Q: What sequence folds into this?
């Protein structure tokens, strides 16, 4: 395997700004203890979360996304007119049509007429969008791209399902990227889908499969997860996947300075530490204070790494996660 200094990015891309946005209501696990009639400390022990954020019933997903975009622009003094492509990378759309990027554009300070589209690969949508953005930047089609992920997971919680209802939080995050000088970029990307897991994690309504004409029930609008089979399947596959990603990047785990995982659950993060042997010093773990924010999870954790100096120029960075499908996605970058 080559050393970091010998590695040349396959696709140039530079992260220049990040931002996040959260709903105003912070929901502590102790609050959920009372709401659900549980003993003190039960929800925190079960979920591994101290608090998460839930939007009100009338809150706008697009407005939250725009807030994260504005946070990135304002924090790094970027002109909104310099963004010439907007990619929405969310797991659940604002509505079936038109695309969520249009709704975000309407709420944002970007110029009317800017290009945009949606990318959806569930919880790993940000990784897919980052790879697409790199490809477009390297063709010269666009100069500066904003990738925004926003999910209101609380809208789909089934409070009768304790296994999944306690872990989700709402939020939005943005990353603004440009091509840069070619010294930063993607070293390797690995995406794998296993459709035998397609029914282990799903929201059935919202498309052509379940609707008033084809047949629909109220529960089809809620999130359903078969937690134990899903965790078992993901655990069985992620170790070999992790090895394939590292081999593709021609780096060893010791070369990776920062690992930004999807904040799926406290069990998944424990698996990263124990089974994949990701050192604590490299792992970005924000789960305790945000919960699982679905597609917003990875870019929110990336914002944490970026703003606390844990994304270091010239040092390899890994994004990795599992998602509904079952989908596994990972990327190794030179920051």
A:
């Amino acid at each position: 395997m080559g050393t970091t200094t010998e590695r040349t990015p396959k696709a140039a891309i530079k992260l220049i700004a990040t931002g996040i946005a959260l709903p105003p209501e912070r929901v502590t696990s102790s609050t959920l203890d009372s709401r659900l009639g549980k003993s003190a400390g039960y929800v925190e022990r079960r979920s591994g979360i101290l608090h998460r954020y839930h939007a009100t019933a009338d809150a706008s997903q697009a407005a939250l996304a725009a807030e994260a975009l504005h946070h990135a622009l304002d924090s790094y003094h970027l002109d909104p007119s310099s963004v010439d492509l907007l990619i929405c990378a969310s797991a659940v759309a604002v509505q079936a049509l038109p695309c969520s990027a249009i709704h975000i554009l309407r709420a944002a300070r970007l110029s009317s007429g800017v290009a945009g589209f949606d990318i959806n690969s569930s919880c790993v949508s940000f990784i897919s969008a980052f790879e697409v953005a790199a490809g477009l930047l390297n063709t010269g089609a666009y100069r500066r791209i904003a990738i925004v992920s926003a999910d209101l997971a609380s809208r789909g919680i089934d409070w009768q399902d304790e296994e999944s209802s306690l872990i989700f939080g709402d939020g939005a995050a943005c990353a603004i990227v440009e091509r840069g000088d070619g010294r930063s970029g993607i070293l390797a990307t690995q995406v794998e889908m296993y459709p035998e897991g397609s029914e282990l994690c799903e929201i059935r309504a919202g498309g052509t499969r379940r609707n008033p004409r084809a047949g629909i029930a109220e529960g089809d609008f809620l999130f359903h997860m078969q937690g134990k089979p899903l965790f078992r399947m993901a655990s069985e596959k992620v170790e070999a996947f992790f090895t394939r990603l590292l081999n593709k990047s021609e780096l060893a785990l010791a070369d990776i300075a920062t690992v930004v995982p999807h904040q799926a659950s406290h069990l998944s993060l424990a698996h990263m530490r124990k089974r994949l042997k990701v050192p604590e010093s490299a792992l970005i773990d924000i789960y305790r204070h945000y919960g699982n924010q679905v597609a917003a999870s990875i870019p929110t954790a990336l914002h944490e790494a970026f703003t606390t100096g844990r994304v270091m120029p010239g040092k390899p960075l890994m994004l990795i996660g599992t998602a509904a499908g079952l989908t596994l996605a990972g990327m190794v970058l030179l920051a």
Observations:
- Residues 1-5 have pLDDT under 50 and may be disordered.
